[in-house]
Design goal:
Length: 433
């Protein structure tokens, strides 16, 4: 299991939950959501606690889209992970987090949280498995908060029923297996039937008629000429630019923009006169625009500050349009996210190294102070004579007065002990030069 800084065990759900609630997702990734639910179901109570803790961190993300995906993942875990995950949702910390989001400034997130609180309270009202959520719902209703009615579940959004999904997968697998068996038995018959049906369908297809808006003169052999106002039977319109059709002039290709399906459209007939003849030509003097390569992404504090100011000044009601450059500025700032994360990681590592160096320096200073205090303890040599028995030389006695007395040096030796305020006698050996 990976370890983070200072020996703290990392949450095993961090990577999986971050992928399931990534800001790059445009809609819920049900494959990752199922992986989270399966991991919680296969684990113990601590596993559910780790998952809930990780989801609480994602609820505090600065991107409302990430918060919405986290709420979708929480709802799916509540519906599919049983009592152990519901207990985590009903914990004091999680309920406080839901209350904070339900009364927050982001209206979309607050409505979504209140809708989930209402639905959880109603669905678990009989068994009482989520009593703290029911109490929260009742308290917020008394305070006057509105709870939007839950919308009809659409395919690809809302909560996800794991049992229903697995049942659908099993039914689909059985249907495919039966279909393969039938296909092996009736391969030859099916091929003949398909060919016959295709022939009948192609013969009985009602061809669409279009009306020419402009004159068109064929340049290639496979093109069809026509005049404005003529009716053309459409044969193939699979290509968005060139269609195939037939008329009394023959059949061939023609520009799709020269005709209309509205047979009642007014068309001015011009004919193929030299004066009014319209042709399709190509200009060889084409203006070539070179595409400048995109600049390398760099962290720009000025752009970040400008984007934050513009976001704060936007109108959440939608009555006032956003600045036209806001979208491009958001894209540029979002492109800096990887660099900012990398920079923050490097700063965090440097801070940790400096902290460790500071601890070592403080330990060394403390050891140095202790060693100095041990080595500088005063030693008083008591001797009855004025010199040592060794070869150090005679000993000079100095009086250390108390207070501000400064005339000790002028007092003869032997009378210094008569001075008032003398605290101690220090003996200092005089080393001969």
């Amino acid at each position: 299991m990976p370890l983070s800084l200072f020996g703290i065990t990392a949450n095993p759900f961090d990577e999986l939950v971050e992928r399931a609630t990534s800001e790059k997702l445009t809609s819920p990734n049900w494959g990752l959501i199922l992986d989270v639910c399966d991991r919680v179901n296969n684990g113990d109570a601590q596993t559910a606690s780790d998952c809930a803790l990780c989801l609480r961190k994602r609820l505090n993300h600065r991107d409302p889209h990430v918060v919405a995906l986290a709420l979708c993942l929480i709802d799916s875990c509540v519906n599919n992970c049983g009592h152990k995950f519901k207990s985590e949702v009903c914990s004091k910390e999680f309920v406080a987090e839901l209350l904070s989001k339900a009364t927050g400034s982001n209206r979309a997130v607050a409505d979504r949280v209140r809708s989930l609180i209402r639905r959880w309270s109603q669905e678990t009202g009989s068994d009482g498995s989520m009593e703290p959520i029911q109490n929260l719902y009742s308290e917020m209703k008394r305070e006057g908060y509105e709870f939007p009615a839950p919308k009809e579940k659409k395919k690809g959004s809302g909560a996800f029923d794991l049992n229903a999904f697995k049942q659908e997968e099993e039914d689909l697998a059985k249907a495919i297996q039966l279909s393969l068996k039938d296909q092996q038995v009736t391969t030859t018959t099916n091929q003949a039937s398909v060919q016959k049906l295709n022939t009948i369908s192609s013969e009985s297809t009602v061809r669409t008629t279009v009306k020419a808006l402009y004159d068109f003169e064929a340049v290639e052999d496979n093109e069809l000429s026509f005049q404005a106002g003529e009716y053309i039977t459409l044969i193939d319109d699979s290509d968005p630019n060139w269609w195939r059709g037939s008329s009394h002039r023959g059949d061939g290709l023609f520009p799709a923009s020269f005709v209309t399906r509205d047979l009642g459209a007014f068309v001015e007939r011009q004919g193929f006169s030299e004066e009014n003849k319209k042709t399709v030509s190509f200009d060889e003097n084409v203006l070539v625009t070179s595409i400048q390569p995109e600049k390398a992404v760099e962290i720009d504090e000025a752009k970040l500050d400008k984007c934050l100011i513009m976001l704060q000044e936007t109108d959440p009601t939608g009555e006032r349009a956003d600045p036209p450059e806001l979208l491009q500025l958001e894209r540029e700032c979002h492109a800096m996210s990887d660099l900012i994360d990398k920079e923050l990681s490097e700063i965090d590592q440097q801070h940790n190294r400096l902290t460790e160096a500071n601890v070592r320096l403080m330990d060394a200073m403390n050891l140095y102070d202790f060693a100095m205090s041990e080595s500088s303890m005063p030693v008083t040599h008591m001797a009855s004579q004025g010199q040592y028995t060794s070869n150090i030389g005679p000993i000079r006695q100095e009086m250390v007065p108390q207070g501000n007395f400064t005339g000790v040096d002028n007092v003869p030796i032997g009378q210094q002990n008569l001075l008032p305020g003398v605290a101690q006698v220090a003996t200092t050996p005089i080393v001969p030069m």
